[in-house]
């Protein structure tokens, strides 16, 4: 397996661990309002690494007509390009912060995000991949 594929596999492992932890934590509940994906309304910016962004495009391009029709992330910067109604149209490709943000308990969610984000930072170092951590929409430019 080449270095980039190994890095993607490591990222997917981190995602699975984060998903498992979130599911097991009773403080973290999602009401599927879609608000956190409407960035301007929620006062959020979604930061992702380049590797995470590439995974979003790889999965979201196949799963979302909206994403594959143009340049994902290059549209309305106030809303995630993969949001479909109030639901995520890119469940498989969504980034760590999408998997670990919960408005039911933001402090618990932040702890989960920080722990797993440290692992993502380390995987970039280990595989010699530029970290390039910035807002989603900047990656699309
Ligand atoms: S990828 Fe999905 S979960 Fe993440 S911000 Fe976009 S719509 Fe929301």
Structural topology:
Blueprint: H1 3-24, H2 39-42, E1 47-48, H3 50-63, H4 65-69, E2 83-84, E3 87-88, H5 96-100, H6 106-127, E4 134-135, H7 136-139
Antiparallel strand pairs: 1-4, 2-3
Helix pairs in contact: 1-6
Iron/sulfur cluster binds next to loops.
Describe the protein in words:
With 141 residues, the chain is mostly helical. The protein has one domain. The protein has 7 helices and 4 strands, in the order ααβααββααβα. The chain has helices at residues 3-24, 39-42, 50-63, 65-69, 96-100, 106-127, 136-139, and strands at 47-48, 83-84, 87-88, 134-135. The chain has a two-stranded antiparallel ribbon. Strands 2-3 form a two-stranded antiparallel sheet. It is globular and about 40 Å long. The model is unreliable at 62-71 (pLDDT under 50). The site of iron/sulfur cluster has 9 residues, from loops.
């Amino acid at each position: 397996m080449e270095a980039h594929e190994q890095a993607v596999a490591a990222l997917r492992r981190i995602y699975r661990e984060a998903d498992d932890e979130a599911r097991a934590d009773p403080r973290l509940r999602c009401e599927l309002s879609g608000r956190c994906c409407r960035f301007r309304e929620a006062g959020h910016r979604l930061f992702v690494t380049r590797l995470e962004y590439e995974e979003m495009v790889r999965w979201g391009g196949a799963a979302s007509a909206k994403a594959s029709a143009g340049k994902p992330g290059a549209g309305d910067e106030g809303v995630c390009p993969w949001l479909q109604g109030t639901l995520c149209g890119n469940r498989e490709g969504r980034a760590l912060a999408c998997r670990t943000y919960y408005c039911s308990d933001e402090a618990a969610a932040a702890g989960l995000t920080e722990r797993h984000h440290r692992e993502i930072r380390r995987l970039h170092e280990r595989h010699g991949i530029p970290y390039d951590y910035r807002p989603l929409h900047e990656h699309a430019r």
